[in-house]
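Action item from last week, closing it out:
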Amino acid sequence: MKDKARSASQYMWVNNTRATYQDSITVVMKGSTIELVRILSMFTTIDLSRNFFGGDIPELIGDLKLLKGLNLSHNNLTGKIPSSVGNLTNLEWLDLSSNKLNGEIPRGLADLTMLSWLNLSNNHLEGLIPQGRQFDTFNHPFDGNPRLCGYPLPKACGADEQQLPPSTSSGDGEEKAQFGHWIEWWVVAMGYGCGISFEISTGYIILETKRPKWLVRKVERWLMRMVERTRRKKTTRSKKNAAQRNHARYLFMTDFAH
């Protein structure tokens, strides 16, 4: 009987004279709607989203040391995010989106080591986004705050801002452009190098032999041989053509005589 009582006490339930039933609830956790058919007695999540709450978030929120999840999104909350949220060391997720919160993001929020999900979008927050720990890994939690600046947003705050990491694509483009220019200059250098080496070699031969005319005569003999070969080809072709004409004339005369 004691074991049954212990197991039953793990969930929230109501017992009266007529019936015994367990509580159930639908909550929005980390942006997803979840229906809890049974509620654990150790359930430490607050979901007050999509109401008409207004005013400031009280500093006393920092006294809820065991709180693991807090959803105050889609309300009309104003003022600053209380710095006491830095005391919620067990907080795993926080959703303050779609309100009218202003001011800077508390530094203590970036120091929460258990925080794995955050949404501060669509508010009036401003200033530099705190850096550190897993705070840099959240996906788009700051959208819709035009006055926020710093990483991971593309908007810069000023000279002291921690700028975005350099883009690898632009770096690759610059490297490719530099590589292309290097190829062009390499080809040009090769062309000049070949021409210069040929001229140096020719000049070296002329200076060493001390006979510039030798090189000229060598070229002249080569040209004469080329001309002689051309003449021989033309003479042979002319003789063949003459023989063919004589043979044709002979055949014509023979046929005419008959």
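Closing note: Residues 44-149 form a domain with the Leucine-rich repeat, LRR (right-handed beta-alpha superhelix) fold (CATH 3.80.10.10).
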